[in-house]
C-alpha cells in the first residue's frame, strides 16, 4: 500500500472537509412538543441546510430500537413544515416528507468531528440523548458501545441497526450522545476496522463504515479508520453516461464472510463504498438508493481472495466498456462504448491496438450514432460502420475499409440522401461486405469497395446475419419468407417459406442467439438458430434445410454449443407457487434432454459437460441428463440475479473455467469445482443492448495469453496460466 495512505492512528482522525458527513443516528417514537434548552429555532416555511449528516424517517419515527430509514447528507436542503421539540418535520426534493433531529441543521453540528473508534462502558444510571443538549433521553445499559464522534464534551456512540425490520424496511445504524462524565471505561481499538489483524465482526465493521465513511473523505483518513487493504486495483467507473469515463483506485478488504471495496478518485477522495455480503436473512432487505455512496451486493457463494494475475499489459482507453472484435498476428480490433442507451448514449469508437503492448494504433469516433466493425477475410483490414460524424456534428452513414495496422482508408461507401438509414448494419460473407439499411441491401467487394449488387425492399425486412460471424449467404427475412442471397451476385440460392408470424397477444421472453466464436481462429457458421416468426429454427445455412424447431414462449432462451438451447422458464409447482425450471433442448435430437427445478444461466458446453451458474453458484452438469458433476457450495440461497447476464458465458480452459460473476471473474477448477480465487485487477461490466459484444468480446484466449475487456475503460492481456 502506498505510504501516502499509511498514517499512524491517533486519538482523532485527520481533518475532513465535511467533518460530520456520513453519520446515522437514533430513531425515535413520534416527536412530542418538548422544549429543548438552547436549541436552534426553526420556523415553518424556512429552508434549512444540514451541517452534519442526519437520520431521517419517512413519516413519524416509529422504530425506536431499530434504526433510521435514510440519511440526509451535509449540504442537503430541507423546507421546514413543522418544528416539534427536538425534531423537524421537513420536505426535500429527493426524499419527500421526513422527520429529522433539528440539531443536525444547527451551526453547532458544523464542529462535530470523528474520533478513532473506542469501546465505551457507561456509568450506571447514565442517559443517552438523540443529539447533544437534547431533552429526549434513553437509559444506558452495561453493554459496551462504540464511540465514533465528539462535539465539545459530548461523545457520539454508534448503535448497530437491529432486526427484525418492520414492513421489510432496511434501517441504518445510528448515534446516541453521552457526556464525558458518563463514561466509566474506554478501550481504544488499536487496529483498522477491516485490517487483517482486526477481531471486529464483519457485521459490526459494516455498520462502522455506514456511520463514518462519507463522500469526499480523504484517503489518509480512510486508511487510519479501515486499515491496510488486501489489494489495491483500478476502480470501477465512478461516473455514468453521459458523463465522461472517470476512474480512480479501489481498496479491497477481503474476509471469508464479506468483502469491502472502497473506491477513491485520483485526487484521493472517497467516492463509492461497496459491500459484498452473504445472501439470506434479514440483511437481504433492500437499502435506500438515495445515499448512493453505498452499494450492496448479495452472494450465495463463499468469498474467495483475489489472486493477482501475471499482467502482460493493461491499458485504459477512452470509454467505459471495451470488447474484442477480431485479431490478426500483431493487432487487435476493439470496440469502445460508454454503455449508455436511449438518450444517454453519447460515445462509441472502433480502434486497433498492438497485440504485444496494448498501444493504440488508430481510432474512429462514432459519437452517439453507434458503430460496428468487421474484420476482413484476409485479416489485414477492417470495415467500420458509423452513423454520426462527431466532427461535423451531423448524422452521416458511412462505411469505410481501413488498414488494420495503420488505419489508412482504403475505400469509403456512403449510401446517399435517397437512402433512409435509421436502421443499418453490416454483415460478413465470403468475398463481400454487406451493408443494409431501411430501404435495402448493398453488397460491396471486400478488396476494392466496388458495389457488387443492390436490392431494395418495398416492405419491412430484416437481415439476420451478424457482424462477428460469416455465413455462406445473405439472410433476408421479409414477411413469411427467408431469402438466402448469393453475396457476390444477389441471386436467390434458396428460400425458407410459410413462416408463422409472432402473435401479438403472446408475451415473449428474452433470447440470445449469437453463436459462440473464437475470434482468434474464426470459421464460417454453417448451422445456426434463427428466430423466424413465432419459432426458433435451427437451420442449415448452406442448404436452407430445417434441422430442428422450438416454439418461442415467455422464457429466457440462450443458444449454446452446436445446436443446443438453454431455457429458463416459470411454471406453477405442485403447491401452485411459481417455480423456476431450467431445461436443455438438443436440436440434433429434436427434444429436451432434461428439465430441472432451479435457475441456470450464463452457460458454456465442452464435451459432455455444461458449465453454468446454477442457483447462484458455478456448477458443472452432465450434458446428457443434467446430473451434477460438481457445484460450488453455497452459504445461503441467492436473492439476486448475480452472475446471470444472458449473453455472458464461462470461458473454458484446459484445467480451469473462468466464470463471469457480477463484476468479478472467478477462477474455478474444471474437474472438481475447486475455488481458485477471483482474478484480480479485473472489473467486468454488462452494458444494456451490447449482448453480442459481451458474448464473444469479453474474454478470449490464445497461447499468448488471456484477453479481458473491462467495465472500467480497461482492456488487458494476462499470461495464460495454462499456456
UniProtKB/TrEMBL annotation:
Pyrrolo-quinoline quinone repeat domain boundaries: 350-556
Cleavable signal peptide: none
Species: Paenibacillus thailandensis
Name this polypeptide is given: PQQ-binding-like beta-propeller repeat protein
Taxonomic lineage of the native organism: Bacteria, Bacillati, Bacillota, Bacilli, Bacillales
Entry-linked Pfam families: PQQ_2
Classification via PANTHER family: CELL SURFACE PROTEIN, OUTER MEMBRANE PROTEIN ASSEMBLY FACTOR BAMB
Highest taxon, organism lineage: Bacteria
